[in-house]
Amino acid sequence: MEVDKILFAPEEIRARVRELAAKINAHYVGLGADSVTVVGVLKGAVVFFADLVRELKLGVEFDFVKVSSYVGTESTREPKLTLDLSGSVTHKHVLIVEDILDTGHTLRFLSDNIKTREPLSVQTATLFDKPSRRENGFVADYVGFEIPDLFIVGYGLDCDGEYRQLPFVASLKTK
Ligand code: XMP
Ligand code: MG
């Protein structure tokens, strides 16, 4: 498969990440928080995570989780944690950072899971969102770009492990 069309250029992504960071900064200033634990969902969110945290104006702790894709048939719809947080988030503000929100099962599962650990607050940021694919009504607190139902790669997003390092986001030629 080959990259088809560039949908988001590096400058456009950079500008939008700054806008999201400004909203996130304002939110935590409003809460009077002086630090936040930013939880990146491996692997796809790594590039967005790295750019976003460098725009945050409060103390940041890094942590990461990995969530399995659905086991077996599509009907299972039950994500599982395959890598857990390295530290406690009890009495901490948590911001979950994801690359793309699709059916909503991953972020619903993760935010519910983290809420059981008595954090001070939990919010979610996703760079991309395909609202037409949602199966559970999940709404992220911060969304970079809404896109139609198409498969995208680059800026962390992959197809079978490929394309993650592209500085832009593109659709794929399917043949
Ligand atoms: P949910 O649970 O919201 O899953 O259905 C979100 C996860 O699905 C993957 N995903 C994509 N990955 N390009 C990708 O590279 C895409 O267009 C795409 N759509 C969904 C991704 O792993 C995300 O974490
Ligand atoms: Mg992902």
Uncertain ranges: none
State the CATH class.
Answer: Alpha Beta
Count of domains: 1
Shape: globular
Rg measurement, Å: 16 Å
H/E topology pattern: EHEHEEEHEEEE
Short description:
This protein is α/β, with parallel strands linked by helices.
Which key terms come to mind for this protein?
175 residues, Rossmann fold, binds magnesium ion, six-stranded mixed β-sheet
Question: How would you describe what is shown here?
Answer:
The protein is an alpha/beta fold and 175 residues long. The protein is built from three helices and nine strands; from the N terminus they run βαβαβββαββββ. The strands form two sheets. It has a six-stranded mixed sheet, with helices on both faces. A three-stranded antiparallel sheet has the order 1-9-8. Helix 3 links the parallel strand 5 and strand 6. The protein is globular and about 50 Å long. The structure holds xanthosine-5'-monophosphate and magnesium ion. The site of magnesium ion has 3 residues, from loops.
